[in-house]
Specification:
The complex is a heterodimer.
Chain A lengths: L3 H29 L6 H16 L8 H22 L8 H24 L13 E4 L2 E4 H23 L1 H11 L1 H6 L4 H26 L8 H14 L4 H21 L8 H12 L11
Antiparallel strand pairs in A: 1-2
Helix pairs in contact in A: 1-5, 1-8, 1-9, 1-10, 2-3, 2-4, 2-8, 2-9, 3-8, 5-6, 5-8, 6-8, 9-10, 9-11
Chain B lengths: L1 H9 L4 H12 L6 H15 L10 H23 L7 H18 L3 H23 L4 H21 L25 E2 L7 E2 L3 H32 L1 H11 L1 H6 L4 H24 L7 H5 L5 H13 L5 H19 L4 E2 L4 E2 L6 H13 L3 H18 L14 H19 L2
Parallel strand pairs in B: 1-2
Antiparallel strand pairs in B: 3-4
Helix pairs in contact in B: 4-8, 4-9, 4-11, 4-13, 4-14, 5-6, 5-11, 6-11, 8-9, 8-11, 9-11, 13-14, 13-15, 13-16, 14-16
Classes of the chains: A mainly alpha, B mainly alpha.
Chain lengths: 289, 415
């Protein structure tokens, strides 16, 4: 039987991953008004890249390089998506919605056809092993995920509120016209947002693979959860995404650990539908970003 | 008002004149070319089995079901602009209801299919009512996750669901193979046909023609509804909801009607599907990750042209043909990557869908009608004026407008 402490640690580490996925999703929505359904595919990209780089049957590099490589590859693909497709249809949300969905499928199927096929794959953990703290044994990878996610979330917060580029991102998300008036290049800001969000998705993909296993279609489930989290927290709100991620992550982990493992991905979604019907605007309205 | 418009369309006031006018309208030689092509297509479908072996009939039969699903999607999403990302929910409700009634309650599919259809209609109400309150992205999310929740329920009530399904919903494998509508002698099917090979032949033909008949029936019904005064409200909703309300029409009633109609059609097709050529299981009905079928249906409709009912049929044909063509290229190897073209599926199709979305948002049907008119005009020596180009003129363009407005509302109120 799993101890309560272990359940909480798993919940924290899973929620942290969901949070960085959801932040990327919500940033792209907040800044460009785009619901990016290919976000899940970027998770797959990160995972596949790290598999190519650090799995012993491939290049066999250190897992940390795989992590960086996954992040960079996903960021590059995200940038290509924005520059090559999204910026041309930015004003047509439905086209974009369906298009990103189809692109997402395309990328995932391409990964299946050209890289890993239908079988699961694994990547060595950056921090293998366990640590015992106050009588509770924890996997180091969980600690690593939590710390890295916390750093990324904090860094995003600082970046957005303190740096010039970050403030420009906020400005574009508030009003594209206003931002244009003060000389901000919305296209450049959008590109930076896509780079950032895709890099986060890539990191999440690598970490998910390290914690569990990877598969060509691994991005779909997190995408749906990220969408749920973002709606739960309020479309376009960073704070809402983090809180939403922890609510969904904890609900999911606790129900699967204590009630039944077949409830995975069920309770959270039902919870979301109920909330959506009661409070359609989400827990937090749209704040600054 | 109805009689007035009848007269103006058909010309003539006495019933004899009117009948003659109707007959004239139905004379294939007098029809516009696109109707003639449509008729030709139907004739092609009727004659198709003469060119195939029984074991090749599965795909075309499946294609007919995909057409029904795509039409079902088009009624609610193409016409009223409420984008559904999880339409396979309705197909699954219809299919599972009928299959479980048959397997676990011993009720014949002849009764089970209508019950499945009704239950899907109830499902349409259950989603349609909350959909009235939800705007664009939120509705998309709800519809996206509903089939996923349904699939989880199948797993959760794997072994038993009290009263409704005593032996359970069967998890990922499905509840088992229900009684078939047609089968060879002694197979226990509803209608037992001849023995041996000729029985297999007859079964394949019976399944095919049943699906074809059902597809045509649904086509006629949906065309009749969407072109009737009741259906006029559908595109109006897509264009301008406030105007519909201002005209004293109940917008929510139209939306709900569209949802239920679509669900009933989808449920009917889903129910017949599991008793002919498809096994009821999450993978069979809902598809990969429980969302593939729903997305395929959207892709087909977009390929053919949304908001036309006929478009999705053509889209489904394109969809199926591309699978056949690409699947046939198993000997053609792509250099460098060392992958056979056939193994690329579904990449070429997804690429085609992307291209259609970007370059011909009205779909293949509209693009070709326009092209055809231009060719005819130049054959006559005229200049084809064309229709106003731009997003606004196609159904998809209007859906986009509606969605954009809703998105703007959401963004604005958060500020």
């Amino acid at each position: 039987m799993t101890s309560a402490a272990n359940v909480i640690v798993t919940a924290i580490s899973i929620s942290s991953l969901y949070a960085i996925i959801a932040i990327g999703f919500t940033l792209i929505f907040g800044v460009g008004g785009v619901l990016n359904f290919s976000h899940g595919a970027l998770i797959t990209i990160g995972a596949e890249a790290s598999y190519l780089l650090s799995n012993p049957t491939n290049l066999g590099l250190h897992p940390a390089l795989g992590l960086v490589g996954g992040m960079v590859t996903a960021a590059v693909v995200g940038a290509i998506l924005y520059l090559g497709v999204v910026q041309f249809v930015e004003d047509e949300p439905v086209t974009l919605l369906i298009l990103t969905f189809i692109i997402g499928f395309f990328i995932q199927h391409a990964c299946r056809v050209f890289i890993t096929g239908t079988s699961d794959f694994s990547v060595d953990q950056v921090t293998p092993g366990e640590t015992t703290i106050a009588g509770v044994t924890l996997f180091d990878i969980d600690i690593f995920i939590f710390v890295l996610a916390a750093v990324l979330i904090a860094a995003t917060g600082v970046f957005v509120s303190r740096t010039k580029t970050g403030k420009a991102i906020l400005a574009v998300s508030m009003s594209e016209k206003g931002a244009a008036v003060v000389g901000i290049d919305a296209r450049k800001i959008n590109l930076i947002t896509w780079l950032l969000a895709s890099a986060f998705a890539g990191i999440a993909g690598v970490l998910l693979t390290m914690k569990q296993t990877g598969a060509w279609s691994m991005g779909t489930q997190p995408l749906i959860l990220a969408f749920s989290i973002v709606i739960l927290g309020g479309l376009g709100s960073i704070k809402g995404s983090v809180v939403g991620a922890y609510i969904i992550g904890f609900t999911e982990t606790i129900t699967t650990s204590y009630i039944s493992s077949s409830l995975q991905g069920f309770t959270a979604l039902v919870l979301l539908i109920v909330l959506l019907l009661v409070k359609p605007e989400g827990l937090f309205g749209r704040e600054a970003a | 008002m109805a009689t007035e418009s009848d007269e103006s369309v058909l010309g003539g006031s006495t019933s004899a004149e009117r009948r003659r006018a109707v007959l004239e309208k139905l004379n294939p030689l007098e029809m516009p070319i696109r109707f003639q092509l449509g008729l030709l297509g139907i004739v092609g479908f009727v004659l198709l089995p003469t060119q195939l072996y029984p074991d090749q009939m599965g795909r075309p039969t499946n294609l007919l079901f995909l057409m029904m699903f795509a039409m079902s999607w088009d009624v609610v999403s193409g016409y009223t602009g409420q984008l559904s990302f999880g339409h396979a929910f309705f197909f699954a409700v219809g299919g599972y209801t009928s299959a479980i009634l048959d397997l676990q309650h011993g009720i014949t599919p002849v009764i089970g299919i209508p019950v499945g259809m009704l239950l899907a209609g109830v499902g349409g109400l259950l989603i349609g009512i909350p959909a009235l309150r939800l705007r664009g992205p939120y509705l998309s999310l709800v519809t996206l996750i509903i089939p996923i929740i349904l699939a989880k329920l199948f797993t959760l009530f794997n072994n038993s669901l009290p009263v409704l399904a005593p032996e359970g919903l069967g998890g990922r494998n499905g509840p088992g193979l229900p009684t078939q509508l047609f089968g060879i002698d002694g197979s226990g099917a509803v209608l037992e046909l001849a023995e041996g090979y000729s029985g297999i032949q007859q079964t394949a033909l019976a399944n095919y023609y049943l699906a074809l008949g059902l597809m045509l029936l649904i086509l006629v019904v949906l065309l009749a509804v969407t072109r009737s005064s009741a259906g006029d409200g559908f595109p109006a909703l897509r264009e301008d909801e406030d105007a519909v309300a201002a005209a004293g029409l109940d917008a929510s009633r139209f939306k709900l009607f569209a949802f239920v109609l679509s669900a009933v059609v989808g449920g009917l097709a889903g129910a017949v599907w599991v008793h002919t050529v498809q096994t009821p299981s999450p993978l069979g009905i809902l598809g990969q990750d429980d969302i593939q079928t729903s997305i395929d249906v959207i892709i087909m409709s977009i390929l053919g042209g949304t908001g036309t009912i006929v478009g999705p049929i053509i889209g489904a044909v394109v969809f199926a043909l591309s699978a056949v063509v690409v699947g046939g290229l198993s000997d053609v190897i792509i250099p460098v990557a060392d992958v056979a073209v056939a193994d690329l599926r579904p990449l070429p199709l997804l690429a085609a869908a992307m291209a259609t979305l970007v370059f011909a948002p009205g779909g293949v049907l509209r693009a070709n009608i326009r092209l055809g008119r231009r060719i005819l005009a130049s054959a006559r020596g005229d200049e084809y004026e064309g229709e106003p180009i731009g997003g606004g003129d196609s159904a998809l363009g209007q859906i986009i407008e509606k969605y954009r407005a809703e998105l703007r509302e959401i963004i604005d109120e958060r500020r």
